[in-house]
Amino acid sequence: MPRSKASKHPVRRSPGQGGTLLERRKFLQKGALAGAALVGTPAVAAAQAGQVAAAPAQSPPPPLTLAAETAPPADVQVLADNERCGSDYMVDVFRSLGFEYVCANPGSSFRGLHESFVNHGGNKGPELITCCHEESSVAMAHAYFKAEGKPLAVMAHGTVGLQHASMAIYNAWCDRVPVYVILGNHADAALRRGAEWYHGVQDAAAMVRDYTKWDDFPWSLGHFAESAVRAYQIALTPPMAPVVMVLDGGLQEHPVSKDERLAIPKLSMPVPPQGERGAVEQAARMLVAAEYPVLVADRLARTPNGMKLLVELAEALQAAVIDQGSRMNFPSRHPLNQTQRARAAVAEADVIVGLEPVDFWGTVNALRDQLHRSTRRVAKPAAKLISISTGDLYIRANYQDFRRLQEVDLAIAADGEATLPALIEAVKRLTTADRRRVYEERGIHLAQASRAAAEASRTAASYAWDASPVSTGRLSAEIWAQIKNEDWSLVSSYYSSDQTNWPRRLWNFDRSYQWLGHAGGGGIGYGAPASVGGALANRKYGRLSVAIQTDGDMMYAPGVLWTAAHHKIPILSVMNNNRAYHMELMHVQRMCNARNRGVDRGIIGSQLTDPNIDYAKLAQSMGVYAEGPITNPNDLAPALRRAIAVVKRGEPALVDVVTQVR
Amino acid sequence: MNRRRSRFSVLGSPFVFIFAVFAATPGVDAVGRVLLAAQANRVQPASAQASAVRRSLGEGRKDPAYVVQETAGANVGAGQAMYAKAGCEACHGPNGQGTAAGPRIAGTTRQLPAFVAYVRKPTGTMPPQSAQVVSDRALADIFAFVRSASASKVPPGSAEASAGRAEAGAALYAKIGCYQCHSNQAQGGQAGPRLGPDPIPFARFSQYVRNPTGDMPPYTEKVLSNQELADIYAFVQTRPRPPAVNSIPQLAQ
Description:
The structure holds 2 protein chains of 2 kinds. Chain A is α/β, with parallel strands linked by helices. Chain A contains 24 helices and 20 strands. Chain A folds into 4 domains: about 15-70, no CATH class; about 85-255, Rossmann fold (3-Layer(aba) Sandwich); about 275-455, Rossmann fold, CATH 3.40.50; about 465-660, Thiamin diphosphate (ThDP)-binding fold, Pyr/PP domains (Rossmann fold). Chain A has a 6-stranded parallel beta sheet, with helices on both faces. A 5-stranded parallel beta sheet of chain A has the order 10-9-11-14-15, with helices on both faces. The relative contact order of chain A is 0.09. Chain B is mainly alpha-helical. Chain B has helices at about 1-10, 15-20, 30-45, 45-55, 75-85, 90, 110-120, 135-150, 165-175, 180, 200-210, 225-235. In chain B, helix 2 (about 15-20) packs across helix 3 (about 30-45) and helix 5 packs across helix 8 (about 135-150). The interface between A and B is large, with 63 and 49 residues.
């Protein structure tokens, strides 16, 4: 929703004072563009401008207003032929960074940039994606990055837009995903329109500084260009994270002479750090000597090559792999994949390697959530622990997403994916024929265990097969039956561990884009926009994007359905509609139990019933093909087939399925 | 305080042996371990287990040496409380009448020393109970209770679940929120294992619901009576069996 209805109105100015202030702004741009030599001058200019504003009308004009005296009459408020606006240049810089899309809910504080994107930039590279909520803009960018490996830009108001966007930025921060946030702000209080006072802020990025990696509020266009490129480099250097560029409204809107030489800085992406050679050699020795090494990957795979490297390392060692699922790290049906029996694999291990672990402590320990919480170590006391993580390179204080400190035997502060080639080389070099025989026996044992786990998952899904509401196991099995011969991508995320996530148990994930990880910060409302963002990335490759969409999540910002319809983003969204916030319901129940008060009132405040929400109608109202609510599991397959036919035509489709809990 | 309590809740539980056996079971949390314990029960018929325990206890022998000795100062009431607290009922039933998991010990003709010796160092599947967990004095009280107990004194609802009513159980299962973790048909979900059909023995089921060793929230008798629990058990027992996995095309690999 646009924040200001008055955004088209020109700045109102009195003949004397207005002209002076206009020139002050112009001077600031020129001064800064001229480089460091004039850094001290703006203060002088401001002082001079102040003197002029206070001076009698007949006083001789100071030098800075001479340009205004010779300019076209004040009522001609269009760009002259020899001028361009600051935001055109900003768009040139953003285009040089290769953004494919910029997601935004429109707002007056970035109207100059908005106009430049669509007219100067031709609404291409980047193309504007119209979003109905800033949280949707950021979540779309979040998932898009994990599918595409490139960031999206997001535009928002520096105040109200950022306040809406902040939870989604926090999710991206916790997930170490770069999102390039561009905020509009009117710094110059003397020229603010009415609404711009609400949208004006001294330090816009302060609100999200604890969970962004870098921000700047450039003072000139030259300053802007350097910061814009620097922000991109910082955001994409592991550990990656969101960055914020605050762009002054005046800097965007005010004309500059086309004669101004405005260069675009060259983008040079830093190479992610590889582990120190000696430490990598030591890790390899420990792995080669281990009887039961376990590789635990979480945020490991930055690129499609990450999965290939992990497969190569695991096969070189015939080591167990646990894919904790923040990224698509390891094929779900690889015989060495022990994710479904992760706790047992950790308990057996004598060497455990955390590859970009999010929660290494929680991997080797367990916490019991009762009235009196208790913890115990799951791993053997003598098990050696190695971490390879960019988490050691960067940490912030306030928000606690860094998790509990895990004591390890070898901590390699480096990028996991960048370090794998050296580790693989060292492991292969150190492996003797004797060790290889041990590896092979181990591999046979692990293959048997993963086969048994897969069979157990299929059996588990068969229980309550015909039940209504539809079991979540059957929901996943029915979707799989329809998509398994397609080039599919699961663009949704469950808020659960990978041991209990039905698609991960039943489907054959073996490509990097088939799983896009989690929300990061556990902020609900991520799922719906993230799935549309993932589908946006998949669109140009012709992949069939599939989401299992939870109902509570959808209701945060369902307008993203309209965004999918408007921009023709093909996605099959299958509602896992259990008509409650079930995780929270379970927490309240736990409190009821702990306090011995009976749990039958625990549902109050967590259910989405009375009335039930009709998601098919909701989607249809926004131009999305939709069916449901489906309660008979036998109706599911035909409905999915019809919806997939729509998606294959390049449009979104939604199937509402009333399901059991989780 | 925190640590002491949780330590007691593990060590003082009859589930120590389940824990020990299944602690390393692949990818299974504490609730799942109980489920697996039930599966293990099916592998080894409960009657075979029970008879093995009886043999090791010497039951069935008519040796005059196995004559009960009165224990000076033993307290039947305290013994009954301790019997419950130490979790004996999980396998032996609330009144020592025996369950599928453990033999009848009510009205035992065994001598106290043999009773103590077996509890301290069992030869069957029973978990050992050390003197740190159950003192000699407490064990004497338990013995007095067990010897005086009659299997006919079974409290309502604690009998096998056949007494339960599946229909009432279905409503209770929903009302008290079992479905939230175990799903509507007790088939298991993201936060809890499958419960039925073929649930673990009722005594163990009851013991776990009252005093869970994992993350499951406990249900006391105040919020869920024994009869209600038996009803829920009946519901869980009567869940339909699934079709054969290989007959379901959607589950084909």
